[in-house]
Specification:
The protein is α/β, with parallel strands linked by helices. It is built from 13 helices and 17 strands.
Length: 405
């Protein structure tokens, strides 16, 4: 949530709307842009100044932070839902990126659907006041009550036909058609941040919602694949900065541009990885997970659900909890496993994460928890992981600007 905010002081005339619904020109507006995996160094490190002029200008002219305390777990979907609810995952109901599904009957499903959110949301409050709200690739937004919605859904197919499902999930049903007509080229699949930026710019210029939420993901992908600070990650950062500049310009040109507040936020930072730790291998060896001759899981009494720099252990039978606790403690004592701390259910309750888990595992820097059970440790296949709640603490600073908070 590395947030900074700027007041925009330029008014403009709206382009012709293709749909009649639009916000009142004199109403306040917020443009909320989440750059997944963005870290404070993007706008505080002088060595990156040439790559991020737009982020730096917003920070210098507005309010900014050099870090925050993340939620538990500090991953994309719980973090984004906290951004629009103000409460921790245990209360808002989005406990992780992926749903708990040890048997994988859902084929790796994430928390796609807004009905899983158990509390009031920011867009819900906006619309409750008779104002308008939009979302583009915002996590947990399928079915969200928005005036303009192109929800986040990655699916399992890279076939171009995948964009048709996104069209069907979006509202209003003509949203993609109208945006394609305006930009002159069709949207492809898989979606890119270029597509997301163009769609958001179209919504801003054409409908000027009171609240517009956008989630950009390519910086996150680059850091997972190549590592934080890699040439690929730095190039992705520069690209995100350019997209931010385009979106701010589109907001200026929308009706009521002088009353628009821009907030740049993020969900987590990154730490480099060396080792992948798989607690389910130990649970399998202890007879708490059953597998077939081919290695497929056929049943479980205890299961470790991975969430990047942490994992959450579910135990079906209370009688097995002491045994699982002793096993986790044995694993923690071996430095090769990279376990910083084993959390109890009481610890998780205080942290506001995974309310139905009996234990949590906080990984040390350089280690990543995974769901597989073939072996206890292996070299990491990802170059970086999200920092856990414990590693996310920083102080906050405010510029001398008089910009609105």
């Amino acid at each position: 949530m590395k947030a900074f905010v700027q007041c925009l002081l330029t008014a403009a005339i709206a382009v012709v709307a293709l749909l009649p619904l639009a916000a009142a020109p004199d109403a306040t507006r917020v443009l909320l842009i989440s750059v997944d995996g963005l870290m404070p160094s993007s706008y505080t490190d002088p060595g990156l100044a040439a790559r991020t002029p737009n982020l730096r200008r917003l920070a210098q002219e507005g309010v900014w932070a050099d870090g925050v305390v993340g939620v538990t777990p500090t991953v994309t979907y719980p973090s984004h839902t906290t951004l629009i609810t103000g409460v921790e995952p245990a209360r808002h109901g989005i406990y992780d990126n992926r749903i708990l599904d040890p048997e994988n009957r859902s084929n790796g499903a994430w928390y796609w659907y807004a009905r899983a959110i158990q509390v009031q949301t920011l867009p819900g409050a906006v619309r409750g006041r008779g104002l308008t709200a939009a979302g583009v690739t915002w996590p947990v937004s399928i079915g969200m009550d928005l005036d303009f919605n192109a929800p986040e859904y990655m699916g399992t197919s890279r076939h171009p036909e995948g964009v048709q499902l996104l069209r069907g999930l979006s509202t209003p049903r003509t949203l993609f058609d109208a945006a394609e007509l305006a930009r002159g080229t069709p949207f492809g699949w898989p979606q890119t941040d270029r597509d997301r930026t163009d769609l958001t710019s179209f919504i801003l210029r054409t409908y000027a919602p009171n609240l517009t939420m956008l989630h950009l993901i390519e910086l996150d992908s680059a850091q997972h694949t190549y590592g934080p600070g890699s040439p690929e990650a730095l190039e992705a950062m520069a690209l995100m900065d350019r997209y931010v500049g385009e979106l701010v310009e589109a907001a200026r040109k929308a009706p009521g541009g002088e009353k628009t507040t821009v907030a740049i936020v993020s969900d987590h930072g990154f730490l480099p990885l060396t080792t992948q730790f798989q607690p389910n291998a130990a649970l399998k060896d202890a007879g708490l997970i059953d597998v077939s001759a081919s290695g497929a899981m056929t049943g479980w009494r205890a299961w470790s659900h991975s969430a990047g720099g942490s994992a959450y252990v579910y135990v079906k039978d209370a009688a097995d909890r002491p045994r699982v606790a002793a096993l986790l403690e044995t694993l923690r004592k071996d430095p090769a496993n990279g376990i910083r701390t084993v959390w109890t259910a009481e610890d998780l309750a205080k942290a506001g994460g995974h309310p139905d888990a009996q234990f949590g595992i906080d990984m040390a820097d350089g280690f990543y928890a995974a769901n597989a059970h073939d072996t206890l440790r292996k070299p990491s296949t990802s170059k970086a992981a999200m920092a856990s709640r414990r590693t996310a603490r920083r102080c906050t600073r405010r510029s001398s600007s008089s910009a609105r908070p």
